[in-house]
Amino acid sequence: MKDAKTVLDHMLAPMIQKYLERLQTRELLLSTLIEKIESGPLANADRNALRKEAHQLAGSGATYGFPSISEAGFALEAALEAKLAEKDILPFAQALLQSCHAVQFLQSSSRQPVRKSAIANALPIQTEMSPDLLRSKTVLLIDDDPAIQDFVKKLLEHDAKVVVAPHVEMGTDLTRQHRPDLVLLDIDLPVANGMAYLRAMQQDEEFRHTPIVMLTVYRRGVDVVQAMRAGAVGYVIKPIDAATFPGYARALLLHTDTTVLIADDDETINDLLAVKFRSLGVRVLQARSSDAIPEIVSKDSPDMVIVDWKMAGLDPAAPEKALKAMCGAKTPKCVVLVGPLADKEEMRALWPNVDDCFAKPFTPAEVVTRCLKRLGLPGYEPMPSSHHTEAR
């Protein structure tokens, strides 16, 4: 029986070979653009074409195991964004072309693909099929780079159906057609920026709960903040870390069928928990007052309600009984948030049958993890974007 590494090599080899074949076409385009740089000022169209090549190679190079290509791509893109003169851009363009040449040379002179070891251990060997919960899931990838499209499809093919759109317009159409459980969204896209799709989905009542994760080369802190404020639940920076990305996507997909209602009139607590749950793919509903609870429960049937133990509007003498009366037959699991000086005996008297409780101040990650485990789901932490404060 073949060992895991041998199987992985067989799985990855066709993808890497396809990437290298595409790289030859990119080299020709780079050579043409370098000739134009050497002969005089670049037209805007040529500058844009050069920036696009640098941007995509920066995102895909290390993803496929060729970090030198990513490094050279990042450097050229930064030079172009700094609006340097052609004579100053030329060395960066030549360095990117040389990186592509070097990879091709090393590949042709080696029996094995030249790639970093992280990718050798990237794709999990699936001795069993993914759980039924994942088999019916759909992931929409909106990205115009064929290399990234191929790689993401290969990484996630055991966990979900992956549909691909190269631009926002098609992405919007496929969203309505397939109703994806998870959207992976690039920012730098042709015609319309990925942020336009993100904002449109957040304003669409039908799709505003669909988790959207940014998958992009842009890594400045301001880019991350802008996307998260616009409604993204995660921010993954290219090149893709193939060792961790499948598990992250799988965790999100496992949680997309779960709905949690947070009922707390303290907006800071309510919003903090909402962000933490959403970052794991959970559908979150929020009630700022007890008056909103019956309608939300009737309409959306949450799996769990997280409620402040003395929320205004609930019967102070019997809040648990009042909450159950509001929810009726659709009463979900119940978790209570209690004050820092709460008396334990009083808590037990007011809420005798709750599934769990947390005293404020609490650790949000612990609340999320324990609540998900109460629902029979794994409690994952969101995948960090550890380099998002670097210059773009």
Structure write-up:
This protein is an alpha/beta fold and 392 residues long. Strand 9, helix 15 and strand 10 form a beta-alpha-beta unit. Strands 2-1-3-4-5 form a 5-stranded parallel β-sheet, sandwiched between helices. Strands 7-6-8-9-10 form a 5-stranded parallel β-sheet, sandwiched between helices. Helix 1 (4-39) packs antiparallel against helix 2 (44-60), helix 1 (4-39) packs antiparallel against helix 4 (86-108) and helix 12 (267-278) crosses helix 16. The protein is built from 16 helices and 10 strands.
Widest beta sheet: strand line-up: 2-1-3-4-5
- Beta content comes to 5-15%
Largest sheet data: 5 strands, parallel
- How many distinct beta strands? 10
Helix content: 40-55%
Structural class by secondary-structure content? alpha/beta
Order of helices and strands: HHHHHHEHEHEHEHEHEHEHEHEHEH
Estimate the global geometry from the Cα principal axes: elongated
Tell me the span between the first and last alpha carbons.
45 Å
Write down the overall mean pLDDT. 84
Q: How large is the radius of gyration?
A: 25 Å
Low-confidence parts lasting 5 or more residues at pLDDT below 50? 1-8, 111-130, 384-392
SS element count, helices: 16
